[in-house]
Write a structure and sequence with these properties.
The complex is a heterodimer of chains A (about 325) and B (about 260). Chain A is an alpha/beta fold and about 325 residues long. Helix content of chain A is about 25%, strand content about 30%. The chains are: A alpha/beta (about 325), B alpha/beta (about 260).
Chain lengths: ~325, ~260
């Protein structure tokens, strides 16, 4: 038995709809009779793609005039739910804005959020979220027990996005109520950081560096190898916290989830925080000088050695081809 | 200026975590430490108060068994005082319940700014900052990688997927800061000594005007139904480098037709 209606939080990316939205739509189609989206912005911009992926309606706030979107979108959805027009289940991606909407919505409606979900099980009206813990070695299944709307925060790459050839979704107005004292945050300008090569989340090959590199200027080895392999450079939390590379490079529980064909971990020991973000890679290669490092327990090829010796030779060998 | 920093005291992440089979929650009965993710908020608060030319940094924390070890670390860094909410009825409290407790504790004073981490290192729901803001009726900016107080508002660089947004928000507000936003100071010996006598007010849930069914398992609206081992990934070949192991990687990549 399926749920009557699921709402998926649609997020726009440069020139389209974010992949996480389409991934959630694929799952939503499986578990609900009616799949709809809600969106902070002009619904006409996304209606075609959302329709193609099975959403019949997109409830859109229209132009938010520079407001940081979490608060107005959450208030609008909460109002719809309180008016009895809401769904049984709301799915949002674990993104910057997805978390903002989920947190606000949860507090506004007094209902819980089940977070970090990688799968959803539905049995009658029961909804169970599956969350990996301890670096993905253990799965915890949590069931909603309350009467209210159910909210799930879903990790990227949990489901495979697939178009189903649906027609353009209907756009309906989602009214934003007066936000009172909560609505003051405004975006005054946007900055896109220059990125060369493929995006971390989409790259076929990822080369990541960790604390084992020793010092920040050694990260250049990771960048060199990545460039040669047309890969995206990534990082462990340790070196992001140390300020070697920006937060946007971080792979792991706090950072990005990647599932490339090949993941090359250089000087990364494999803290659970990191492993949960990359253990879905098809092939994992690890270079680390500590042979007890946890990363070797999941690596297809593990090199016990000093990254400062192995990487320069590897780079030269690939360059020489 | 008065800044409140929400801090979590967590089991040492270097030690392997485990779940208590009877409660199905993370075991937190060992010694707890200051979540490293919160040390950035503490440092940020100290710097902002310094820049403002004066004020206080207060801490708010929720922990079992009256634990203060992590709070003392943050007090040693320079925070002035702390509120600790510790109560057996908090067993099983989820993110929203935690936010109810933190918001009620923060609401006892009227801070200009409330700082949090983006998520804790042990529970990592990442929803508490926004939940606290909503319960306090305040605006919020999450994922701040730079924070500047300018008069009665705060200017923030907020992390985005492709870069960052400049965001302006009126005070009071809740701001969550990313790790690495500032370099947390090491507590000095003097700071550690001073921290021992700084005030830590310990409160119960009832002291905050919250009902027992707003927290704990009762307040959660959810139930853990199963804990199971995930499908394990098999370890592959491990080669000790004698100077030529790079060749193994070259061969591996060749085999996949990547090079």
């Amino acid at each position: 038995m399926a749920l009557d209606k699921v709402w998926v939080f649609a997020e726009a990316a440069e020139g389209g709809v974010k992949t996480i939205t389409l991934e959630m739509l694929a799952k939503a189609r499986e578990i609900a009779d009616t799949v709809e989206c809600f969106f902070g912005g002009d619904g006409d911009d996304v209606a075609e793609v959302l329709g193609e992926h099975g959403a019949t309606t997109v409830h859109a706030t229209g132009d938010l005039e520079g407001a940081l979107l979490g608060t107005p979108v959450a208030a609008a959805v909460a109002a719809a739910v309180q008016a009895g027009e809401g769904p049984d289940l709301i799915m949002l991606g674990t993104t910057y804005d997805g978390r903002d909407v989920a947190g606000r919505l949860s507090a506004r409606l007094g209902v819980p959020v089940i977070t970090n979900v990688v799968d959803v099980e539905v049995d009658g009206d029961d909804v169970v979220g599956v969350e990996p813990v301890f670096g993905g070695t253990t799965n915890v299944k949590t069931k909603f027990t309350g009467d209210g709307v159910k909210i799930l925060l879903v990790r990227p790459k949990s489901f495979a996005a697939e178009g189903v050839g649906g027609s353009e979704a209907d756009v309906e107005d989602l009214d934003v109520p007066d936000l009172g004292s909560t609505g003051g945050a405004r975006i005054v300008s946007r900055h896109v950081e220059e990125a060369t090569g493929p995006k971390l989340e989409e790259a076929e090959i990822v080369v990541s560096g960790g604390r084992g590199l020793g010092e920040s200027d050694k990260y250049v080895m990771v960048e060199d190898l990545a460039k040669l392999l047309k890969a995206a450079p990534g990082a462990s939390r340790a070196i992001v916290d140390a300020g070697w590379v920006p937060y946007s490079y971080q792979v792991g529980q706090t950072g990005k989830v990647v599932k490339p064909t090949v993941y090359i971990a250089c000087g990364i020991s494999g803290a659970t925080q990191h492993m949960v973000g990359m253990k879905g890679s098809k092939f994992i290669i690890a270079i680390n000088k500590d042979k007890e490092a946890p990363i070797f327990s999941i690596a297809d090829l593990g090199i016990v050695g000093d990254v400062h010796k192995v990487m320069p030779k590897l780079i030269e060998a690939i360059k020489g081809r | 200026m008065h800044v409140v920093v929400c801090v979590k005291q967590i089991p040492d992440p270097a030690e392997p975590g485990s779940l208590d089979p009877s409660t199905k929650t993370l075991k937190r009965d060992q010694k707890l430490i200051l979540d490293e993710a919160d040390s950035y908020g503490v440092e940020m608060a100290l710097q902002l108060v310094d820049t403002a030319g004066g004020g206080t940094v207060s801490l708010v924390s929720m922990a079992p068994n009256g634990e203060t070890a992590g709070l003392r670390t943050a007090l040693a860094m320079g925070a002035a005082d702390a509120i600790l909410v510790s109560d057996p009825v908090l067993q099983g409290t989820d993110a929203l319940g935690t936010a109810r407790v933190l918001a009620a504790a923060i609401g006892r004073s009227n801070p200009d700014l409330i700082l949090t981490a983006t998520e804790s290192s042990d529970g990592y729901t990442g929803t508490v900052p926004m939940q606290v803001a909503e319960l306090l009726g305040l605006p919020a900016v999450t994922f701040a990688k730079s924070v500047k107080v300018e008069g009665s508002s705060v200017s923030i660089q907020r992390q985005t997927e492709d870069g960052y947004d400049d965001v302006v928000c009126p005070l009071p507000a809740v701001v969550s800061v990313t790790a690495g936003v500032v370099e947390p100071r090491y507590p000095s010996f003097k700071g550690i000594m001073a921290a021992k006598s700084k005030p830590v007010e310990e409160l119960k849930v009832a002291d905050l005007g919250l009902a027992a069914d707003q927290v704990g398992w009762a307040g959660g609206g959810q139930e853990i139904v199963e804990i199971a081992a995930a499908e394990a990934r098999q370890a592959g070949r491990v080669v000790e480098d004698e100077g030529e192991a790079f060749g193994e990687i070259v061969a591996f990549l060749e085999n996949l037709k990547i090079i």
